[in-house]
Write a structure and sequence with these properties.
Helices cover about 40% and strands about 10% of the residues. The protein contains 5 helices and 4 strands; from the N terminus they run ααααββββα. It has helices at about 5-10, 15-25, 30-40, 45-50, 100-115; strands spanning about 55-60, 65-70, 85, 100. The radius of gyration is 20 Å and the shape is elongated.
Length: about 130
């Protein structure tokens, strides 16, 4: 991840801490909330969003089949839980269970492959 430019410099400047605190304490503009909802397809209100989203769909790192995983479950293997682990929804998939480590490894390989093809100024930055 590469973050540079005047915005970052402003955030890191000690004199801007008061401005940042004011921005964070103020009500968000309607346009910002609308943009958030349009880009993420999620509610801007985190409590409202949590009520309507109870699971996440991921692609199996081995076969790329979509698998829906509850965020929390009684077994402690939900996506947000420490023992996250689920079998691929494709009965024919021979891969190991989907875990945070396997998803991370697949993402790293994809990011490195994509970065290697980028010859622009962001070539050294992971997306």
């Amino acid at each position: 991840l590469c973050i540079t430019g005047p915005f970052v410099d402003t955030l890191l400047d000690q004199s801007s801490n008061l401005k940042l605190a004011q921005i964070l304490a103020s009500e968000p503009a309607h346009a910002r909330m609308k943009t958030w909802t349009k880009r993420t397809r999620r509610s801007f209100d985190p409590l409202q969003d949590a009520e309507s989203h109870q699971s996440r769909t991921v692609l199996c790192p081995k076969c790329r089949h979509p698998t829906t995983i509850p965020y929390m479950n009684a077994e402690g293997t939900g996506f947000f839980q420490s023992n996250f682990e689920v079998k691929c929804a494709d009965a024919e998939c021979t891969g190991p269970p989907i875990t945070r480590s396997s998803l991370s490894a697949r993402r790293l390989v994809e990011d490195l492959a994509r970065t290697g093809l980028d010859s622009g100024e962001n070539a050294a930055c992971l997306p």
